[in-house]
Structures are given as C-alpha cells and as structure tokens.
Amino acid sequence: MGNLLIQNFTIMAQIMNILSITMGILMTFMAINEFKKLGEQKSMMSQQHGAMKPMVLLLCGAMLLILPSFVGTAMLAFWGHTSDMSYSGDTSGYGSLAPAVLAFVRLIGLGSFIRGIVLLSRAGGQQSQPGAIGKALIHIFAGILCLHIVETMNLMGSILGIV
Question: Is this structure's pTM higher than 0.85?
Fold first, then answer.
C-alpha cells in the first residue's frame, strides 16, 4: 500500500511540475504584455506605472519555468546538498507507511514553494497588500523545509536535543 501511495504522489508531483511550467509561461507572457504597456505609456509621457511589476513577473515566470533546477539550487543554498536523504527509521507495522507520509510532505512542500513564487509575483504590483512579500518568502522557506523533510527532522532533533 505504501508503494502505491508513493507512485501516486510521484504522479501528482509531475502534474504540479507541468502546472508550474504552464504558469511560468503565462507569467512570462504577462510580463511581456506589461512591458508593452509600459513602453506605450512612456511614449505618451504618462508616468503612472513603474517597471517593478513586469520585472517581478518575468523573474517569477523564469523561476517557475525551471522549477526543478531552482528547487535544487535553493536546497543547495540552504542545506549544502541536494541529495534527498532516505528515511532510515523502523519500517515494520505502521512504519512501513513512513516513506509514503514523507512523499506526501514533500508534495505539500512543492505546492508551498510554487504558491510562494505565485504570491511573490503578485507582490510586485503597485496595489499589493502589506506583508505580501513576507508571506511569499515564508511559503518558499516552508516549502524548502518540507521538500527536505528528513534533514528538517534531523535539524529539529539536534536543536531540541532529541536523538
């Protein structure tokens, strides 16, 4: 049963990667459209909009387009390695479902990481809410922690003194 769950979570992760690539393409086109509007407004001497929104959209679109490489780079920057550590606990009884639970947490982490990038893209506009950038960065940080959940558990264990 655990292997079936892991296979299903792997398929769901692939679907999320495809959706992130699609959102990245859409954000890139939205950025190009915003740059076009900005150029048209500059030619008419209108000074209402800045270039921050299209730049952030372009950056977030690029991050979503290369999501696996970007996640690997973020994990390398935070943990110092990108290797996915396997669970080495008890695998008898309910412990046999531990790899499936860890795969689910990684899937949630991937979703949180994508949501953080989408929130970051919305924070670049002039009418963004206060705290939107902080909320986006928290989602990205929590996604990194969930994507490497085994190392996060080891870190928490060493901080709290649990062996």
Answer: no
- Specify whether the CB–CB gap between 28 and 48 falls below 8 A: no
Q: Domain boundaries in the chain?
A: 2-160
Backbone angles phi, psi at 137, to 5 degrees: -70, -35
8 Å CB contact between 163 and 156: no
Which distant-in-sequence residues (6+ apart) come within 8 Å of 7 by Cβ?
Answer: none
107: closest CA among 97, 115, 119? 115
- The C-alpha angle 16, 100, 102, rounded to 5 degrees, equals 75
Which pLDDT band, with edges at 50, 70 and 90, does 131 fall under?
confident
Contact 13, 109 (CB under 8 A): no
CA distance 44 to 60: 29
Give the Cα separation of 84 and 87 in Å (integer): 10
Count of residues in the chain = 163
Question: Which two tokens mark 85?
Answer: 């550590």
pLDDT one-digit tens code per residue, 24-39? 999 999 999 988 888 8
